[in-house]
């Protein structure tokens, strides 16, 4: 019983690492590594479905390793939020691995792009599953180092330029994270997240506030919150689209997840949450204004990542069950739809030869099928009912109204309008307008296998987004439970510290 | 001793930030390394200092006898040093590649990914 639980909890972590090793060792990686990566990603998805099913049936669950029970040992722990994040990571992993078959060239494959990609997935999965603050830091590093490699592997001038900014800011955030860990350990003597709330009772409030703000700064930089977001639009548009899509989907959301986890469980009250409300609104507004000024599809979308992180931050800052529900629902929607928009933009670039509005145009006449897919994703991104972005925003606005944060509501709705403006801009100038010179190719001009590899992920993500919009009940139920668990974390704490009934019956010592 | 090490961490961090602001990739990497060392010191001192009592368990025992140094911060710092070393190596390689391909070591002057006329 508990042995099974341990395996189910660790399989989503072990599989990407095993796949990375296999992709590294496979003969002729320029041809074969992509298939290893695809197969491994499919297994990863199966393993996370098994994990999510078990968590849904049995509630929060933890596994200790090395024969030491937490808080002395290090635990893997999953509640509904972790399970959802791991599941979405695996889904995005499979989708982008499929897209990468056609999108990532032989040169990158020979440099073991696919192995690094799997390490990125492993790092993200580890960050979502760990129950220990220092291990969270280590998983962030695993994710970060893999992302560095994926970002600059092509060695083009734009990639190196974006890479410098990305690496510099993330290194600083990393050091802030490490310092905060040192301070928290000095205050409490523990780093197990489930053990921290009890140990912080009666601690010196000034020391706790300092440590928590350092931690907040680190997570805010990793999530791309105002004013620490400049690295994101500087770097995200430079590598191949499969990389940008997985970055846009998973990387910044790992920062949001860390904020959500640590600031509901460990520091539910403190200066960080007061600041976060203001920061969330500023992030939304600045991101969307930045996007309005851009004429490059990828950069418009990159600025929108920043803006939309603001919605999730708003949900965390409001902190009610409804607000967290909205934030979680919006986060899942955003991962799926944002990645999808990047994948669509990648196909658009292949057909038109440019991602600059004006030059890369005429897609409506050349590729009507792609146009429909773009329109569905763009409407979902803008939050037009009944598409998937609507429900999360609705929950956030209702939560804001319940606490009478009128300014935040105004920002939420106004930013939605501006998002629609940006999407309309891409629609008018990228799809409807005639290109400045030449003309866009048709989808049938792409070689057959590449067409399948590029379009299957887009169709799959569109289907997920449509199901979230048209039949939101199951998604709402999951998000509601995840939010409730965040606000009443005792079962999570009990699972880690060994008071869970299934662990008490002769589980690991 | 704690006060002395805390002051050292402060000086290291200040010097590191100064270097990071110099507008030069190489100094940026050195600066990050210095601040990282300061962070490692904070972790180490935060765990409490115990002199000359290594955390070793004698033969036939299951727990150390008497007072020993706290082994956790040592393990944490060791991990952090390894990670920091890897990151510094990568950052140096990146600085070198950027200098060769972009022809500048000033991050402010790198405008390939964000051309000023595209705004």
List the helices and strands and how they pair.
The complex is a heterodimer of chains A (509) and B (119).
Chain A (H helix, E strand, L loop, with lengths): L1 H24 L3 H30 L2 E4 L10 E4 L1 H24 L2 H5 L2 H17 L3 H20 L4 H32 L7 H5 L4 H19 L7 H5 L5 H25 L5 H22 L4 H22 L2 H32 L10 H4 L1 H15 L5 H15 L3 H27 L15 H23 L2 H15 L2 H8 L3 H4 L5
Antiparallel strand pairs in A: 1-2
Chain B lengths: L1 H19 L4 H22 L24 H32 L17
Helix pairs in contact in B: 1-2, 2-3
Task: Describe, in plain words, how this protein is organized in 3D.
The complex is a heterodimer of chains A (509) and B (119). Chain A has helices at residues 2-25, 29-58, 80-103, 106-110, 113-129, 133-152, 157-188, 196-200, 205-223, 231-235, 241-265, 271-292, 297-318, 321-352, 363-366, 368-382, 388-402, 406-432, 448-470, 473-487, 490-497, 501-504; strands spanning 61-64, 75-78. Chain A is an all-alpha fold and 509 residues long. By secondary structure, chain B is mainly α. Chain B is built from three helices and no strands. Chain B has helices at residues 2-20, 25-46, 71-102. Chain B starts with a helix and ends in a 17-residue tail after the last helix. The model of chain B has no long low-confidence stretch (mean pLDDT 85). The chains are: A mainly alpha (509), B mainly alpha (119). Chains A and B meet through α6, α7 and α10 of A and α2 and α3 of B.
